[in-house]
Every structure is written in structure tokens, then in C-alpha cells.
Write a structure and sequence with these properties.
The chain is an all-alpha fold. It has five helices and no strands. The termini are far apart.
Length: about 150
């Protein structure tokens, strides 16, 4: 029988899929930063916590399978926002970035909504492997110039 962690015990974090997924890129990161005052005021006015809004932002931008219904327009705006800020355009052109988002969205669409638990587990395992493949495909794209720190 497994023991549940008590107050002093901590659960172990899963090992990262890729070597670089530590520090600033740790999936289970706790980020501490100062929120703009206007953002906090806006959050309070609309009765949404800053965490809810930031989490919603990241879920929509990642094109995942979670909470997809009725979010296509918001997702499209976020992708345009990402591109308008020039994120990644020192490595990729705009068409490449659009293609990245299309591929992420296609993967999210494959989630077996009414599938049994065994099928959902199979999908989750396959999805995780595909994420690694997708990342390496784009990371090794010929136009990208690798620095010595960016080693897989």
C-alpha cells in the first residue's frame, strides 16, 4: 500500500522528458512576479483570479485538448498576439509559426472525448511521445541557429 505524503513529505516531481526542462523551463514551476496593478483591478472587476486568467491564456495558446469547446476565436486571437509580438521570429518565419500552431491544434483535436479510460491512457502516452517528436522536429529546423547551451 502506498503512503500518502504528510506535511513534511513531498511528492517527487516527474522527471523531465527532455534535458533542458529544468529551471525557467520546468513544467512544474512556481513563478513569482509582480502583477500590474491595472491587471489586478480588472481581475477583481470580472470576478476572475489572476491565476484563472493566466491559466486560461496558456491553455488556449497551447492548443491542447483541455477546454476546447467555444474557444476557437480566442485561440486565433492569441496566436495572432504571439506572432504580432514577434516571438520566435528570430528562428522561424511567420508561416513556420502558423504551422506549429496548426500541428499543436490538430493534436489537441484527436482527444477521444467519449473514450474509455484505457483509450484515454493510450492517447495520453502517444500524445506525450508526439510532443517530444514535434518539439525536436521544430527545434532542429535548419533555419534555427543553435547556441552551445541549446543541446538536446
Amino acid at each position: 500500500m502506498k503512503k500518502n505524503p504528510t506535511g513534511k513529505q513531498h511528492r517527487r516531481r516527474p522527471k523531465p522528458e527532455l534535458k533542458w526542462q529544468t529551471g525557467a523551463y520546468d513544467r512544474h514551476a512556481k513563478i513569482k512576479f509582480i502583477l500590474p496593478y491595472q491587471f489586478l483591478l480588472l481581475c477583481k472587476l470580472v470576478d476572475k483570479t489572476p491565476e484563472e486568467i493566466i491559466r486560461d491564456f496558456t491553455e488556449n495558446l497551447s492548443c491542447g485538448s483541455w477546454k476546447r469547446e467555444g474557444r476557437d476565436q480566442a485561440k486565433e486571437h492569441l496566436i495572432n498576439y504571439f506572432i504580432a509580438h514577434g516571438y520566435g521570429q528570430h528562428h522561424y518565419n511567420e508561416e513556420d509559426i502558423q504551422q506549429m500552431f496548426k500541428e499543436m491544434d490538430a493534436l489537441g483535436l484527436l482527444f477521444p472525448k467519449d473514450g474509455k479510460m484505457k483509450l484515454i491512457d493510450l492517447y495520453a502516452n502517444w500524445r506525450d511521445k508526439h510532443h517530444t517528436y514535434w518539439f525536436k522536429k521544430w527545434f532542429r529546423k535548419p533555419r534555427r541557429k543553435l547556441s552551445k547551451k541549446e543541446v538536446l
